[in-house]
Amino acid sequence: MTESLQETVTETVTETVEVEQGSVDIRLAVTAEDVVAAAHLFEHELQPTAVRRFLGDSSHHLMLAWDGDRPVGMVVVIEMTYPDRGTEMFLYDMRVDDDYRGRGIGHAMLDRLESLATDTMCGAVWVVTGTGDKNAGARATFSSRGADEDRERVRYSWRIENT
Q: Concatenated DSSP letters for 105-128?
């Protein structure tokens, strides 16, 4: 990615957190270089325009857990304001590298996310996740934090072709 993509959004504080088998640094991504360093954690190839737009929107947050100079976990959240519910955080994606799972990194990132939600006056955090085995760890993590599982909702999604 070129230097023109580097865009500092806000100052961020690094918090070093002890987890099983060591420690990680947790901080918000504020530059394109932060996002590029975490590219292996995303499902798809990064899109430079989307990276710029994401970093330029103060209601979008990418929290990264770093082991040295390598991101090993991420949480993507978007602040959403509803006229009747106030502002909440939608947890869009959460991932921890396979080799780092089971060490408490997901919990540490969620602790930091809850602090961010408090700082930004968000009254709740919510997530939609799959029910299959691949999401069992994430579901257990959310449940252990006191999250309620809503089995009455169905998620629909569709792609829009842009020309």
A: HHHHHHHHHHHHHHHTT---EEE-
Query: Which range marks the domain in which residue 22 is found?
Result: 12-144
Distance CA 143, CA 158 (A): 28
Residue 155: inside a domain: no
Please report whether residue 152 resides in a domain: no
* Cβ neighbours of 109 (radius 10 Å): 23
> From start to end of 56-85, where are the E strands?
60-67, 70-82
Asked if residues 92 and 76 have their Cβ atoms less than 8 Å apart, the reply is: yes
On whether the pTM is more than 0.85, the answer is no
Q: Is the pLDDT of residue 24 over 80?
A: yes
Please tell me the distance from the alpha carbon of residue 89 to that of residue 129, in angstroms, as a whole number. 15
Contact 26, 108 (CB under 8 A): yes
Q: At 113, phi and psi to the nearest 5?
A: -60, -45
Q: Are 75 and 94 in contact (CB under 8 A)?
A: yes
The count of C-alpha atoms lying within 13 angstroms of the C-alpha of 102, restricted to the half-sphere facing its C-beta, is 2
Count of domains for the chain = 1
Is the pLDDT at 3 greater than 90? The verdict is: no
